Amino acid sequence: MKIKTLTAALACALPMTGAFAAALDRSGQSISSFLQPGNYFEVGGSVLAPDVSGKENSGNKISDMAQSYAFASAAIKIQATDNFSVGLLFDQPFGAKAAYSGDNIFVSKPTNNVLGALPVTTAQLAGAAGSTAPTGNTEVSVETHNLALIFGFQPNENFNFYAGPVYQEVKGDVSLRGSAYSLYNGYDAHIKNTDGWGWLAGIAYQIPEIALKASLTYRSEIDHDVNIEERTPLVDDLTTAAGNGALAQLMQSLGSNPNIAPLLPSIQAAIGGAIAANGASSKETRITTPQSVNLDLQSGIMADTVAFVNIRWVNWEDFALRPYKFGAISEQVGGLLNPSRPNGFNLVQYSKDQWSVTTGVGRKFNDKWAGNASVGWDSGAGNPVTTLGPTEGYWNVGLGLQYSPAPNYFVAGGVKYFWLGDAKAQTGAQAGSDQYVAEFADNDAVAYGLKLGYRF
């Protein structure tokens, strides 16, 4: 029962482990292609079609806000000598794609209030400032690309020590719309393509005679420093003389309102600070993608049959995104919130690390056909969670099938069905509290994948 023959039974475990994982995790960052025997090349792609809907706190329905997306992977591994190997791995480890629609608090209306405590709408402020009130819907699109160069040392047939540099690119766009975001209604952030460097290292152990293979891989966090292009139109309107004058007039008229009058000094100070922060020169924002650890195990359990398990940890608890101007404005208006946020708040953050487990069995039916079945679980990255990705982990089941027309190449396909975890969605201003603006429940997703492999 040699590992070279049983590996085929697992090859159809497509790169969909993290297709709808916690936070921004997507690919699962598998190292399995580098651990294939001999010289090996593969290319694969996956498509995920999610359905994520819910309701506002007021009870209004929110239709499907999650958009389908595709991601790719590729790898080449060269066994240069009996003791040394080198590989190049490409994947898209992190990402997001979502868009709200319909009549809800995540879509702009002219009747949206500028600040909850003030009876002034975006249309009134825009009219006074000679601009246009925010329109459109809340959207997010984030992409990453990883390229890892790996060097391996095999002192014998059992051990493999490997490490290498990782190059990563990140780009994205975020648009906040609707009353859920108050003064940030209309906010846009464009993260231009930026790059950074990290590293990975690991150890693998195998006993070919019993199809036993184990690997432990660590990937470092990667820093990206970028000038994010930001636009906050409601603060822009307040910056104009006409807009600021209209607001001052409104506040004066509200001075006799016993419910609002005590708040006016702090509101005026916060708005003045927000205007100054918005007008200041932009500075670089640091985006740090998280460190992670993957543990992969497989073992033969009977003739032509193996059991496998993947355990993955991702350090999302330490991840936060605070674009420079977004953060500077939040430090001015955060004191108006309940609970107060005098030090500002983040656009996106998570409260827990992600843990995921995928386990199953693979079987070689004959020289040409192999298949597998798996079940997976993901913990999520906390709940409540950001409105830009309102699910908490998942359960899934998957099936894969592989066809090998010849011993040196194969075609594999697979499908996974996800039961997505219910979640409460909160804005950045609410993060760290029990407050939330919407709930999402009874959601699911389907992933499809295809992979081609060639041994040479």
Radius of gyration: 25 Å
The end-to-end span amounts to 22 Å
Largest sheet: 14 strands, antiparallel, barrel
What's the total number of strands?
25
- The CATH superfamily is known as Outer membrane protein transport protein (OMPP1/FadL/TodX)
User: From the helix content, strand content and strand pairing, which structural class follows?
Assistant: mainly beta
What share of residues are in beta strands? over 45%
The CATH level-2 architecture is identified as: Beta Barrel
Number of domains: 1
Mean pLDDT: 91
CATH class: Mainly Beta
* Poorly predicted regions: 11-15
**Contiguous helical run count:** 6
Give the % helix. 10-25%
* Sheet with most strands: strand arrangement: 1-4-5-7-8-9-10-14-15-18-19-21-22-25
Report the principal-axis shape: elongated
Which fold name corresponds to the CATH topology?
Answer: Porin
Family: Belongs to the OmpP1/FadL family.
InterPro entries: OMPP1/FadL/TodX (IPR005017)
Membrane topology: Multi-pass membrane protein
Subcellular location: Cell outer membrane
